[in-house]
Amino acid sequence: MLVRLLLVFVAFGVLTSALVGIVLAQRGGVANVIWIVLIAGLILVAPAWLLARSFVRPFRELREGAERIAGGDYAHRVQGGVWRDSRELARSFNEMSARLAGQIDRLEAERGQLRAILGGMVEGVVAVGNGHRVLFANAAAGQMLEFDPASATGRPLYEMARQPAVQAIIERALKTGQPQREEVEFHNPASRHVRVYVAPLSADGEPAAVLVLDDTSELRRLERLRQDFVANVSHELKTPLAVVKTCVETLLDGAAEDPKTRGPFLGQIAEQTDRLHALILDLLSLARIESGEEAMHFQVVPVREAVARCLDRQRPRAEAKSSSLESIPAAEDLTVWADEEALAEILDNLVDNAVKYTQESGSIRVRWRADANRVSLSVEDNGPGIPARDLPRIFERFYRVDRARSRELGGTGLGLSIVKHLAQAMGGSVRVTSEVGTGTTLTVCLPQRV
Which of 27-41, 52-66, 318-332, 418-432 shows the lowest per-residue confidence on average (mean pLDDT)? Predict the structure, then answer.
């Protein structure tokens, strides 16, 4: 453009000089005209060059600015040169660039917010385009479908997630154009239940879909626990009530008139009502602990005194079975930061279980020691022990290793569950070790306060 303008300006000057030369030629001859044209051409080259350059510079600056903005340099500004119109054009260009930069910044911010929101969702979200190629996937979706979301973009979903049921739902949604909702079960590496929702959409005229995956495995587990709890409570209540009902019917049929006969029946009624009372108290206690309504009054509790009071309460039952109760204290006096009544209930449940399930002339020992700013209280017995397969479940409500023996001994099946929840409510934990034929050790760890 610069060369063309230069030629135009020079040609215009030469033509003007030629016209002047023609007029002068009438007086001085053709030679004068030629010299006039040549001198005028030489003189006009430099001004024409400067004029053409000043005229072209704003356009070149605008072109370079557009290239830099297209490359992402939205802060670049152009000046416009000396011409008023070019400066106005440059100002409009800079304003357009600033608005464009603001819009792009807002879009990037909204995009970042959207990715943060989708990335923080517990539900899995996957967007697929033509050929089921992944457009976006959050971390939850990668965890459920077992692929890396960072490397999944642009690749077909069926290459990443080997779940034919999910692919079938996507195909059905794309074929019918209607949203699809279905619950499927994944078996690898572990069995999981996932609710899949697929909504078809159109992206640039190509078929696409959005998947939302909701893992319902925990809900199903809780539902099974609820059903098991209701069934266990019903069973535990039914057994003593059936005994009470039978005894009452027998007494009403005439056994109440015979002093020798009614005594055993009344004894069974008293025993079963005590059992029902203990079961209801344990259920209420467990419900309060789990709901967080159990008021904890934390204080410094000396371990030695708490254990001594517990052994005094449990000693009559141990002596009835000719079992020995022994405490093995730590070398120094230790204290725990706990609720005194909750600690007493934990110790009573643990020692009561040890006495109950240890054979005649058994041995129960309670020992404690400091363990990294915590105090570990262990209740050891030399009873029959617990099989390894049952150890992970002994803190479940109503779980019994030997159901028949537990009912015979009068247990409610809630003692260890209460121990676990009370320990956790006080910032502690509980664990168990056992060997069949040797004995069992239950250990509660609580925060220490020196």
Answer: 27-41
Give every strand in the sheet of 192-203, ordered side by side: 134-137, 124-128, 206-215, 192-203, 180-186
How does DSSP assign 58-72, residue by residue?
HHHHHHHHHHHHHTT
Peptide bond into 189 cis (omega under 30): yes
The strand pair at 324-328 and 363-370 is best described as parallel
133 DSSP assignment = B
The number of CA neighbours under 13 Å toward the Cβ of 130 is: 4
Q: Which amino acid is at 39?
A: I
Candidates 3.30.465.10, 3.40.50.720, 2.60.40.180, 1.10.287.130; correct CATH number of 220-291?
A: 1.10.287.130
DSSP at 429 = E
Q: What is the CA radius of gyration of the chain?
A: 45
CATH class of residue range 121-215: alpha beta
Which pLDDT score, from 0 to 100, does residue 218 have? Answer: 80
191 or 369: which leads in pLDDT:
369
The answer on pLDDT for 5 being more than 60 is: no
Using alpha carbons, select from 330, 333, 367, 361 the residue that is nearest to residue 347: 367
Contacts 24+ apart (CB under 8 A), 66-70: 66/93, 69/97, 69/100
N-term to C-term CA, the chain: 90
Give the start-to-end residue ranges of the domains of the chain.
Answer: 2-101, 121-215, 220-291, 298-447
Gap between the Cα atoms of 408 and 42, Å rounded = 125
Q: Which of 194, 140, 142, 139 is nearest to 165 (CA)?
A: 194
Least confident of 27-36, 132-141, 285-294: 27-36
Write down the CATH number for the domain with range 298-447. Answer: 3.30.565.10
- Give whole-number Cα distances, 26 to 17, 20, 308, 417, in Å: 15, 11, 141, 127
Write down the pTM of the prediction: 0.51
Alpha-helix residue ranges (DSSP H) falling in 121-163:
139-145, 149-152, 157-160
